[in-house]
Amino acid sequence: MSMNEGCEGAVIPRRVVITGMGAISPAGMGADTLFDAAVAGTTAISKLEGDVAESVNVNVAGLIHDFEPTEHRMTKKQARRWERFVQYAVVAADEAMQQAGLVRESDERDDTPFALADGIDPHTFAVVYGSGIGGMDIFQAEAVKLHEKGGKRVSPLFIPTMISNIAAGELAIRYGLQGECTNCVVACATGTQCIGDAYRLIRFGLADRVLAGGSEESISDVSIAGFANLGALTHEADPQRASRPFDANRSGFVAGEGAGALVLESLDAALERGATILAEVVGFGATGDAHHITAPDPSGEGVARAMRQALADGGFTPDEVGHLNAHGTSTGLNDATEATALALLMGTDAPQTPVTSTKGITGHMLGAAGAIEAIVCAKSVANDLVPPTAGFEEADPACPVVVLTEARRDYPQKVALSNSIGFGGHNTTLALAPYKE
Fold this sequence. Notes:
By secondary structure, the chain is α/β, with parallel strands linked by helices. It has 15 helices and 16 strands. Strands 1, 2, 7, 8, 9, 10, 11, 12, 13, 14, 15 and 16 form a 12-stranded mixed sheet that branches. The longest helix has 17 residues, at 84-100. The radius of gyration is 21 Å and the shape is globular. The two termini are 26 Å apart.
């Protein structure tokens, strides 16, 4: 009988903890840099230039500046062949895997700089890592090449370079992980869904460890033009006032890029090897709106149901929620819908639960957003605080929620929620808690 089975063969759910976190975001390199910016409420939005951006009146973006992949344990060949979303995924995952103490230096080949630490079973170590869009840069470049030079000039590596599952595949190869290797794509809910899927794999005994997260290279001409013509992007020129979730004067989201990665382990596996536990994933919820391909259901029912599911998973009640790290895109429909959903969850028209949105700092990192925000949320509960929302100035009556302009410190929490919402009506919520023995 398996250690995860009861007397009648029923699986006994396992506790799932976080032992490693890594990030590359507009705020800079590393999970600590991201969290420091979140606590300080410092926006990392910057000017965006280029003919296409100018033609659609998009002036700002959450850019990663001065990124050189060969400075981050990638060979020149990998730097040439890997799209930026894969490069970003590798940077975030390297940090998370090293922090977790699950890799050691490898002297076998330059293109595999890490090997699994001694005693770690690769067959029970899974990868669940996604991208909302995948390789947009190469898609754009090869489409132009096809049009201008003909089909024989399209790169033979176009498909395996572009498709979004390649980040998960390359991460598995990099560390020798031979458990389940999957890629989930649910638009802007991708990062949260991947972490939720990883949580379930461990919770129900299908893996002992999972490397999870999301990555995005969304600031390409075709992406910017598409989102702008959809009416989703702000036309604000001032980077400090461009991304302002829940603010009365918000005018659309700011496109961002980067990646987040988390190492999840069963509590038993983490304790057995003496790992440092950073926080605990105590629940996950996922629902569908069945409403519209781009607009959330304004009733908020689907989002509220996902939050309830996540809380029920861990045995928590709504009144125990310390704060909500909202999807908070700085768009009119999304922010109002989330505010309505929180009211449904809490059973009041004006919930007093503090709400924050990391997108005031990074912009909207699409498929990477949920992973980045899970990192901020996990660090928040571990450090007894709630970060402010950068850019927020004036409350919107349509969003009756408590949005902080300064960090709330010395604020112990039993549990916090991190939401993501994606085109297609995907609602996902993680419940995160400080680790208690």
